[in-house]
Amino acid sequence: MAIVLAGTGFCQSPKSTTATADSLRYLALGDSYTVGRFVPTAQSFPYQLTASLKNKGVNVALPKVLAQNGWRTDELLKGIGEPAKNGTFDFVTLLIGVNNQYQQKDHDTYQTEFAQILNAAIIMAKGNPKHVFVLSIPDWGSTPFANGRNLDKITAEIDEYNLINKEVADAAKVHYIYITGISRTDGTNADLVTTDRLHPSAKMYSWWVNKIAKEVGKEIKR
């Protein structure tokens, strides 16, 4: 998916690290799905999640987004570098792997690198695995962009990668939020994708956030 997900630079608002002393700090790790390709920054899922949590009475700062279009697990690892240098956060979301699948990268390598990323995420979440939320990989085979391709193969491969990241997440005792089913909703609906016919629209992101916010809100309010 590097052909269509290529890009440069981090998606990070200048205001994303500004917070009051009692605001919760949120770190979003990932690729173009976390960046919010072709949607306004405020409509990406990390920013929609922040807004949703605020509406629920949670005092959370704007997110720090460590993500880049086209990133695989190895590239996210390099982006993270030494976890301790990134500071600490009250909660972290992680969504990574679609570019590994698209580029047909090795499953064992994905598992190893995903586990390393997850360990770094836990460190950055002050060592609390319950404040780390792994999101399953959406199925781009359900988008108009995939028309004419082997959709069954894409779906099967996405499922294989999600089995891997869920196994790693379960072993680490972090939260696992399955959004793949949502991404497979009405693939012919142009309102659910952006102008590239591939990436989630603000509306699709809002559906993700409805599910993510419930689990995040429940955990961080404890």
Automatic annotation (TrEMBL):
<feature type="domain" description="SGNH hydrolase-type esterase">
    <location>
        <begin position="28"/>
        <end position="205"/>
    </location>
</feature>
<dbReference type="InterPro" id="IPR036514">
    <property type="entry name" value="SGNH_hydro_sf"/>
</dbReference>
<protein>
    <submittedName>
        <fullName>SGNH/GDSL hydrolase family protein</fullName>
    </submittedName>
</protein>
<dbReference type="GO" id="GO:0016788">
    <property type="term" value="F:hydrolase activity, acting on ester bonds"/>
</dbReference>
<dbReference type="InterPro" id="IPR013830">
    <property type="entry name" value="SGNH_hydro"/>
</dbReference>
<keyword id="KW-0378">Hydrolase</keyword>
<dbReference type="Pfam" id="PF13472">
    <property type="entry name" value="Lipase_GDSL_2"/>
</dbReference>
